[in-house]
Amino acid sequence: MPSPILVISHTHDIHAIEVLGHLARRGADAVLFDTGRLPRETRLTIAHDPLHDWRGAAQFDGRTLDMAAIRAVWWRRPQPFAVHAELGGPADQGFAVAETHAAVSGLWSLLDARWINDPDADDRAARKAWQLKLARQTGLRIPRTCMTNDPDAARAFIAAEPGRVIYKAFSATEQLWRETRVLNADEAVGLDAVRYAPVIFQEFIAGTCDLRVTIVGSQVFAASITASAGAYEYDFRVSMGDVAIAAHDLPAPIERALLALMAALGLVYGAIDLRLTPGGDYVFLEINPAGQWLFVEHVTGQPIGAAIADVLVGWAV
């Protein structure tokens, strides 16, 4: 019997629901595991003894899941832990969260499973500075970049750039999302504010289109994203209703470099953003280890969700 497949996400994640549908049609025993229900709604037990290998059980929704049997995991959208409301003040609640994190992290390390993506690799790969270093080493062109909380360093970088400069945040959530912006003259006056938190400054790369390249294992799904005239040119996510999306054929050297980057980052899945310049250069912007892909699949028909399901089913033996 194939082992259960663990999908770590939540019920409102449309990407998880899409892949769970593919898995169900393949007859797989796929389980949605929401870390946001720990420890309040899900019971977790890990047991060791001198004579046997470890044992683990997670109890939720009337099911007891044998965690030691798991062989395939999709680390999609882990949620913050939810502690019991009757706990005391912030100190007690913080202690409960920390203890839950310690237990659950230990569980992930115990699993004899393959991951899309391994949580530790996923965490490292999300680091923007690390991405750029490895992208350059694998032969990809990258933008000139300065990440700093030093106002003087920011001003020096901006002054040295011959063209426009964009700036962006290191991370984003659904609640706190910030688009990439061009630095205007009136904003340059307020550069002292970077002392509060580091900011990413980059040269602006003029392009004929953006590209979203979704990689699943050795499969590469590339799509061009072309904004209409007057659309927001610094971040296609701002004007998604104003873009044309189409399948795109990457040059073989760029595809090889992207696969090499994935290997260097230790990723099975990645959503990569590139920009194609008028001169035909492909410029690496960033990679999201758990980036969105349905908006591409719905338009192009590229079977990204099916590819994820196929990898997981192949591992669940």
From TrEMBL:
Residue span(s) of domain ATP-grasp: 132-313
Organism: Sandarakinorhabdus glacialis
Pfam families linked: ATPgraspMvdD (PF21068), RimK (PF08443)
The keyword Nucleotide-binding is annotated on this UniProt entry: yes
Keywords: ATP-binding, Nucleotide-binding
Recorded GO CC terms: cytoplasm
Any one GO BP annotation for this protein: SOS response
GO MF annotation list: ATP binding; metal ion binding; ribosomal S6-glutamic acid ligase activity
InterPro entries named in the record: ATP-grasp, ATP-grasp_RimK-type, MvdD-like_ATPgrasp
Top-rank taxon: Bacteria
Entry protein name: ATP-grasp ribosomal peptide maturase
ATP-binding among keywords: yes
